[in-house]
Amino acid sequence: MSADRNKRRIEALRQVAAVALVDASWLVPELLPTGKLRRNRYWALNPNRGDRSIGSFCVSMDSGGWHDFATGDRGGDLVSLAAFVWGVKQLEAAEQLASRLRLSVFEEPSHELSEASRNKQAERVKQAMLEAEEKRKKAELERIQGAKRAKRYALRLWNASPVASDNHPYLVRKGISAEGARQKGDMLLLPVYRKGELINLQRIFPDGTKVFLRHAEVMGGYIPIGKPVSGDTLFICEGWATGKSVSALHGNSPVICALNTENLLVVTDFLVERFGDVIDLVIARDDDRKSAVIIDGEKVVNPGKAFADKAAEKHKLRVIAPCWPAGAPLELSDFNDLEVWQKANSRAN
Length: 349
Description:
By secondary structure, the chain is an alpha+beta fold. It has 10 helices and 16 strands. It has helices at 3-22, 24-31, 78-86, 90-100, 115-160, 169-174, 240-249, 261-275, 303-315, 335-348; strands at 35-38, 41-44, 57-60, 66-68, 74-75, 182-184, 187-194, 197-204, 210-212, 223-225, 233-237, 255-257, 280-284, 292-295, 298-301, 318-320.
């Protein structure tokens, strides 16, 4: 594909996404018929898995961004949402949406349209892109304001909560201590920092459900275990329970828990900038052998490995992964899974 043609297609994708966002009020329910609009977010069943209740899959009607918090699937606009729902590439989804929205933006050039029709379409696209940009600006302002309120609430809740009990069902099941956690009722509270400042709390319920504070920021955030000093090895992983197991496995070494696969990249960037060559950084990655996520219409197999390898390659860091013994179930994916499984099997034998 020539550079000019590729550039035109990218611009056409942007135009379709803008017009789709303007028509989101009818287009999103058409893509996701089983859903409800709440505060400008459309909550729906994920059509690509056995969802039984609404609560984890949502679409922003302001930006077009969507996310399944249960699986990690996500995208930045309604073109990627259509690609996800229909199971096609983004370009094919954009072409189908263009037809649905009566746009001729993929013609090269659109000779079939009269000059009057071309001018009318150009004006429609221009207006849609202006409206889409206004929506995004409004959504970004609301996001910043919401994050500030959530950060203040996180600090109040953290300071008012006592140290967690080692008897919390999640801790018992994971075989880890409560050190570093606090508790409110039956919720574990874990502090999420960014550049040393508390920005969020991860709440963990007895059944293992994990929820961040509403509106609070996550990207760039991390949960620290221990405090590194010059000459230490500092491990970077995803989840807190994983970090606990990694720390214990390596003589109570300090660990930074980056919360999720994509955030691992951002947190690693920060740590490399923060510590440089003073501390040995090692990524202790997950091994999502049975998992795949859809990100902006593209399928990422074994995201724990994919994102860790990407961060390691960028900064020339070492990577360690769980070493699965014979018979270890494929559902196991991280160092804590391995530790819990090995303990259970040693007791059984």
